[in-house]
């Protein structure tokens, strides 16, 4: 499914997402990168995994952020080493084990406090409902930014002056060689 359907604000987009979450059992959303379907389509897409129940059943939705499928993301789609598909399968099986243990012991809740910095994580149905049934992984994934420290401006200016002096010296030497 094209990513636009996962977060689109039109009434039709919201209705289909609400139906999947409320009237069926939405189990998972695998977000795929742009280019997976090249050369035919370049849009980013997602795989929705759900059980058609007609009576609901969604408690938690499992999200996975796929970065590579074993092929380049250009028009040639050549085989590459990076491939998330084996990890998706492994994480899906672990997901099933976790959900089964949750049914037996509600003492291990899957909650918002869960680490959402990794490739796979759960989002409770209530949070999805609160967010207008937005199923885009970017709505829920926590992005960790690294703080970059820069030299104070006075040091940067000093380095620039030294660089400029070196360039000036090299230009003088070049002019001397050419004359």
UniProtKB/TrEMBL annotation:
InterPro entries in the cross-refs: DNA_Adenine_Mtase, DNA_methylase_A-5, SAM-dependent_MTases_sf
GO terms under biological process: DNA restriction-modification system; methylation
EC number: 2.1.1.72
Enzymatic class: transferase
MF term (GO), any: DNA binding
Keywords assigned: Methyltransferase, Restriction system, S-adenosyl-L-methionine, Transferase
Reactions mediated catalytically: a 2'-deoxyadenosine in DNA + S-adenosyl-L-methionine = an N(6)-methyl-2'-deoxyadenosine in DNA + S-adenosyl-L-homocysteine + H(+)
Domain of life: Bacteria
DNA methylase adenine-specific domain ranges (all copies): 1-146
Protein name, entry field: site-specific DNA-methyltransferase (adenine-specific)
Source organism of the structure: Crocosphaera watsonii WH 8501
